[in-house]
Design a protein that fits this description.
single chain; alpha+beta; Arc Repressor Mutant, subunit A; four-stranded antiparallel beta sheet; 8 helices; flat
Length: 241
């Protein structure tokens, strides 16, 4: 699309996420705890836990915090019993929105999420109304100017699912979700390092928003992300300057 810059848009979103780092540890501890509860405390046989630990280490979370979160999940320490829930809906311009939560009170959480949708111009939908528009995967984004052929060869050899080159020259490497860290490390060893990437729900199509629509959509995203029970907000919206 004209004027669309994948690199600039992802950098902008990453900058906004970095500004909210005060809540990152809380969300990561929840994820480690629930992952251990669901699949056991051994990351070697629990890929979700392994991914959660990798994310926590990437944010420099102390080892004791990680270990205590695992123990709470496996019942070795007392802790809050978190439940997973996902809410779906539509934002400005019909952009798809998916909100993943971990909560000890679903009644409170659904009320908070519904209020945020309503207050900021969105519309909360039914289960499954937009989930089919997203793919669970890992992605790594490389700056414009990266050698496309060499990166593609290295990525596919490392086990990546796909390599996509965008109009602005940025290159996106898509990975299976639980192979994300291993592939990232293999690419770094091959000379391709990036700090931009994560395991996410990637929209299959994007909705470009500009001007007032982009501002309104950002307010909706911010409102959802500010809720204590919200872990992640995924959207098909691309907010242009």
């Amino acid at each position: 699309m004209a004027g669309h810059s994948k690199w600039a848009n992802i950098q902008h979103r990453k900058g906004r996420q970095d500004a909210k780092r005060g809540k990152i540890f809380t969300r990561l501890i929840k994820e480690v705890t629930v992952a251990a509860k669901m699949g056991g405390g051994d990351p070697d046989i629990n890929p979700r836990l392994r991914l959660a630990i990798d994310k926590a280490k990437a944010e420099s979370m102390p080892k004791d915090n990680i270990e205590n979160a695992i123990k709470r999940g496996t019942g070795q320490l007392e802790g809050v019993d978190y439940m997973e829930c996902r809410y779906e809906g539509y934002g400005i311009g019909g952009a798809a929105v998916m909100v993943d939560c971990l909560t000890d009170n679903k009644t409170r959480t659904v009320a908070d999420v519904r209020h945020a949708f309503s207050k900021y111009g969105g519309n909360m939908g039914t289960d499954g109304c937009v989930a089919f528009q997203f793919t669970h995967c890992g992605y790594l984004l490389f700056a414009p100017g990266t050698n496309e052929d060499a990166l593609m060869e290295a990525a596919l050899e490392a086990g990546a699912d796909d390599v996509v080159t965008h109009e602005d020259g940025a290159i996106e490497v898509l990975t299976p979700p639980y192979e994300f860290m291993a592939i990232k490390e293999r690419l770094a060893a091959a000379g391709f390092s990036t700090e931009m990437g994560e395991v996410t729900m990637k929209p299959q199509t994007e909705t470009a928003l500009t001007g007032d629509d982009a501002v309104r959509m950002q307010k909706l995203i911010d409102a959802l992300e500010s809720l204590d029970d919200v872990q992640e907000v995924y959207t098909s919206a691309v907010l242009e300057d």
